[in-house]
Amino acid sequence: MNEEPLDRGKRNFLKAMIVVSAGAAAAGALKGVVQNIISPAAGLTSFPTLTLVDDVTGLPIHTSDIVVNSSKAYIFYYPLDNDPNFLIRLGDTNDNDVRISPYNVQIPATGGVFRSPGGAGPYGSVVSFSAICQHLGCVPPIIHYYKGGIPIPGQPTLKSSTGYIHCNCHGSTYDPANGAKVVTPPTQRPLPNVILDYDPATDTYRVKSMIGPTIYGKPSDLEGGTPFPSGTTTTRVTQISTAGA
Fold first, then answer.
1. E strand intervals along 27-135
2. CATH homologous superfamily for 39-241?
3. Which of 13, 45, 60, 73 is least enclosed, having the fewest CB within 10 Å?
4. Does position 187 have pLDDT exceeding 80, yes or no?
């Protein structure tokens, strides 16, 4: 007996739904290591100015609280409450502070250029970047900082006295001493730079804006996430372990 057109249509619909369901399940499995590509359309109208404070004590972070070439990652959230960023005190292979100068960073994806702010703090060695990989959105501890002289998985030829930020998801590498510029693909965009405001009188740090390409997966740096509660003046810095660092 010939199959009725309606029956064939139902079967085709069911096949299509099975494919969609399988795709949704696969996407859900990736959430542990990849930032959501589509975020809620919430945000701010301007960058907030927030003081960096210790996650445990709630007191302002001082330079001595940031270990040079730390084997743990210092993470804080900015400009929205779900945007992780690195705080790194860069040093050489002997863990001596290295002064970081502003740098003209190229964006391979667009051909554009932006000026990185350089280092902050008494030694000009403290820098900050988005901690979301610009390739497919992987976050710490999958992406983290390797100090100079530490082998990077799959990148045996990379050598720098000030180390690299490397993503173990797909091998993207960034240079924190030069505005987190692209060192190795597949990323075609450097990490967005966080602008730090250092107060030498109190030896404290504030974050006040960002520069560079848009944070991965967002329509703009100020949209696509959860704003801090009204009246918030601080953002907490947390240390997390990074295997292989």
1. 50-54, 72-77, 84-89, 104-107, 112-115, 126-130
2. Rieske [2Fe-2S] iron-sulphur domain (2.102.10.10)
3. 45
4. yes
